[in-house]
Design a protein that fits this description.
Length: 256
């Protein structure tokens, strides 16, 4: 008969969210990346600590530079109070996000949310609303789910209960269908998203600190427009959380 330790290891064993290999998690944090990924995959999921703008996440040309505001944020500071992302949209992280977003692998919501919270460190205190960037009704019908909302649900479940914000999936709505931002050049994105977002019930966000969630940020125009809509509705401040950050020059044809 196997010993108690053997059975404990069997019951504690999980499957890696990235490669499906069996592994035994370590650590006690509910949103620790070690709860979802095997050691081999964790080595490929490295949080970005240098070479980015701390205000919008723009990836710098020189990866070893210390975090510093980019030229755009110096000239025109973003409307949000903070911006959190785990790493650039590349490698294993990119494959995970594509599977989650386009291949209906919604089981990746918890692992991806775990990465964001691991990057964030202590959960923001005082934020009382958790809002996903919405899809237009037609796009939602085509895809069958909003990946930002799935991320929000995962973040909500992993957020420390004492500071957990209220999840409001319909606090923000997209009033018209637009060309997907990934299909447009950088210069056209701001105009494409202009006036798209609306808060139907301002009482849900007025006077509150809001966490705005999306999967990917490329130029940041979608987040800017959504943040401004929340602020116009009376939100005290908005903190943005995304899984990964890229730039228009890093996009690949299959992402469109």
């Amino acid at each position: 008969m196997p010993g108690h330790g053997v059975w404990h290891g069997v019951w504690a064993e999980k499957r890696c969210a990235a490669c499906s290999a069996p592994f035994v998690p370590y650590g006690s944090s509910g949103h620790a990346t070690s709860q979802y990924f095997c050691p081999a995959c964790l080595e490929k999921l490295i949080v970005l600590c240098t070479g980015y703008c701390p205000l919008c996440g723009e990836i710098a040309a020189w990866p070893l530079l210390p975090p510093a505001p980019c030229g755009r944020c110096v000239q025109s500071p973003p409307p949000w109070s903070s911006f959190t992302f785990f790493a650039p949209y590349e490698g294993l992280l990119r494959r995970l996000v594509l599977s989650f977003k386009f291949q209906e692998k919604l089981v990746l919501a918890n692992p991806l949310a775990g990465l964001v919270l691991a990057r964030q460190g202590p959960a923001p205190v005082g934020y009382t609303r958790l809002v996903p960037v919405p899809l237009h009704a037609h796009r939602l019908q085509q895809r069958g789910y909003n990946q930002a909302y799935e991320l929000c649900k995962a973040l909500y479940s992993q957020w420390p209960e004492r500071a957990r914000p209220l999840l409001l999936p319909e606090a923000l709505e997209r009033t018209r269908a637009t060309t997907p931002q990934a299909q447009l050049p950088r210069a056209a994105r701001k105009e494409n998203i202009q006036g798209v977002f609306h808060v139907p019930e301002t009482k849900h966000v007025a006077g509150h600190k809001v966490v705005l969630v999306d999967d990917i940020s490329t130029t940041g125009e979608t987040l800017r427009a959504a943040t401004k809509a929340l602020l116009r509705a009376g939100a005290v401040e908005v903190a943005c959380m995304v899984v990964c950050r890229t730039s228009v020059h890093q996009r690949k044809p299959e992402d469109r």
